[in-house]
Amino acid sequence: MNKIFSMSRKDVLTFVIFSAVVLLMPIWLQPFGAAYPDLMQKFAIFGILAIGFNVLFGLTGYLSFGHAAFLGVGSYTAVWTFKLFSMNPIPALILAVIMAGLFALAIGYVSLRRSGIYFSILTLAFAQMSYNLAYSVLTPITNGETGLQLELQDPRVIDSAFGSTSDGSLPVSNLFGLVDMNGIPGFYFCAVFLIIGFFITQRIFASPFGMMLRAIKSNQTRMNYTGFNTRPYTLTAFVISGMFAGLAGGLMAVTDPLAGAERMQWTASGEIVLMTILGGVGTLIGPVVGAWLIKYFENIFSSFNESVLHNLFAFLPDGVEKFVVEITSMFVGEGWHLTLGLIFMLVVTFLPGGMMEGFRRIGSLFNRDGGDKAKPNEKTPAPAPAE
Amino acid sequence: MSERKDGPSRRKVLKGAAAGLVTAGVAPTIFTSSAHAFRNEPTGDTVTLGFNVPQTGSYADEGADELRAYQLAVEHLNGEGDGGMLNTMQPSALKGEGILGKKVAYVTGDTQTKSDAARASAKRMIEKDGALMISGGSSSGVAIAVQGLCQEMGTIFMAGLTHSNDTTGKDKRRYGFRHFFNAYMSGAALGPVLGQEYGKDRRAYHLTADYTWGWTQEESMINSTEALGWETAETVKTPVGAGDFSQYITPVLNSGADVLILNHYGRDMVNSLTQAIQFGLKDRQSNGKDFQIVVPLFSRLMAQGAGENIKGILGSTNWNWSLQDAGSQAFVKSFGAKYGFPPSMAAHTCYVQTLLYADACERAGTFDPIQVIKALEGHKFDGMGNGPTEYRAEDHQCFKDVLVVRGNENPTSQFDLLNVVQQVPRSQVEYDASIFGGDLGPYEV
């Protein structure tokens, strides 16, 4: 038991700094205009999703294009738990993680028979299947396009057994009736899970199991020749990362009790891949940074409209201002995808290791020998798993 | 943060967000709010409204037009421009001096026609930008999702284009208001006209957008056409944003139906109608009758997209720019002067909603949502383009006349696409508030 918690000094330091950064978000995000509860909740939730995805993609090199399916399963499970049993987030999250885990077990069992591009396509196919099921076939369970929502008539058997009464408004998810899971408390609730999740991945990265996964990534064929059965390891990694996604989906439902099928669409799966690559595949913190960056763009850049830009460039002469606004308005508002695409392109071209590589290069500028030596195992570019 | 070298530009943006930061700081105190405090109470000399419209996706055209209308409404409220409907609205407490003496500012968001994205951007506008009222939505699924959120947040939601019965039916909320008409009214208005035009012995085939609006639209159309004596051959649900509808249209040919009812909207409707015409449905004979296509919810924007194909097709709309009353004329004039083309019905309803909200604040004498809600409930007004209109207190649905329109056979301009066949009086489309169930919920949240 003691062994689990024995960490290297560097790991302890990373963990402490990471926790501080997460918990202090309401303060340091202020200058960026992002310190409002909803976005910070998203930062925490998608951080969980990205680190979970990284356990699979970063360590084993298996690129899953269907992780959004587990996110959706988690959300639907959580909302149904709210509807049927209780508005307490704990049972909802437990069930969400279990359901997503079972789903991941089933999908992983089939998909992991192949590797490389075939694995990606298989997971994509499964995710699209789940999306279509949620969107139309399973409408009685998922409420299709409209999305699954709470209703006043929901049974909520546990809550009503404890004699909670309704005042005619929809209930909010709450921790034993003490704290409502929205606003800042909702953020801290998610943040705690992000920190726990980060700790778990840290332990996985440092464990022999993590070493095994890295070995699979560098040369699976050789592993097989030496008589190693790699399948149980990859399947475990897949299920773990599916459970992380289920947790994230559950938390989404906790902070905002609504589940829609679009959460499972392939674009949502693609977004997770983007987050991880943008931040830095295989690094501990990279995927989280990537997730934050993408969510920041989605929520803040998309809100800039022409009047904001006009204010922004008001210092320029009239003609120039109009021209500049015209150009920049293509990249903000509905054009935020374009900006994101450009950044992604630049990062992949010049910093194949993601944002983390950028940080490290900046770091090594100041500290010539320390910077590169600090994280030797993250230098290697991700080789494709052997087929 | 200090190492960022973005220069003064970033700082300027952040200045705009300063209001939001104040709110974020205030947020925790909301949990211990007293009776009179409410979220985002405006303290400076501006009041912020949030406009949440689809800027991408199937309904992007409507969203763009809605945004134009909102900008126009803000101008008029602030006393800029020619005042538009401020001059024709009766009764009106608006003076063109902002709302309650505060200048109107606005923030925008992209709903992407997805419930998740719409709720995220609405939350951003409420939590960060300090929006006091949210308006918009071009899809009922989104409108219902945002309306539910606004109820939780205690922020008034003035629904834009949403046509599902559920918005003010089973999913109605105390903080949500809808000026637009609904599927029930479309059915009730369209039914008798269909009977006159196409006879009482028809077989209808429904293609329906697979979400709350499509479902209620289909239900209402089936009720009103079956009351005429029509039969329903089959109802098929199609995914929103399908793009290609040919796989759904082919079976219509062999179904023995002689009317196709397209419960689609936006680009979906443009695509499905265009493809139905390409398949030759309109030139067909079936059961010894001419095959007909009906589009229950019509808009000029869609008519523009569908081009020639729209000719002769019957549908219903909430409003059309060709109306000759003073309110419509004033609105079309100032919209045309600013943008160079006439507004769509989506633009009209959003413009009217913004003015109605502002007027209600003036009449209530406060921005306190509870008082504003009470000022809107049961409010009767005129001069906004639809004749005498009432915000029914029981379900927050506006009751007014409904237009039955037909695609113009001989358009005189690229905007002259719909002819008004009949202005169906309010009495014919009215219904009891209890038939859809649902509960408005409490004033205090």
UniProtKB/TrEMBL annotation, chain A:
Keywords: Cell membrane, Membrane, Transmembrane, Transmembrane helix
Recorded topology in the membrane: Multi-pass membrane protein
The name this protein goes by in its record: Branched-chain amino acid ABC transporter permease
Source organism (scientific name): Maritalea porphyrae
Highest taxon, organism lineage: Bacteria
Compartments it resides in: Cell membrane
Listed CDD domains: TM_PBP1_LivM_like
TM region(s), chain numbering: 12-31, 43-63, 68-86, 92-110, 117-138, 186-213, 233-252, 272-293, 336-355
InterPro entries: ABC_transp_permease, LivM-like
Entry keyword annotation includes Transmembrane: yes
From TrEMBL, chain B:
Alphabetized SUPFAM superfamilies for the sequence: Periplasmic binding protein-like I
One Pfam family cited in the UniProt record for this chain: Peripla_BP_6
CDD domains assigned to the protein according to its UniProt record, in alphabetical order: PBP1_SBP-like (cd19987)
Domain Leucine-binding protein: 46-408
Domain of life the protein comes from: Bacteria
TM ranges: none
Protein family according to the UniProt entry: Belongs to the leucine-binding protein family.
UniProt name for this protein: ABC transporter substrate-binding protein
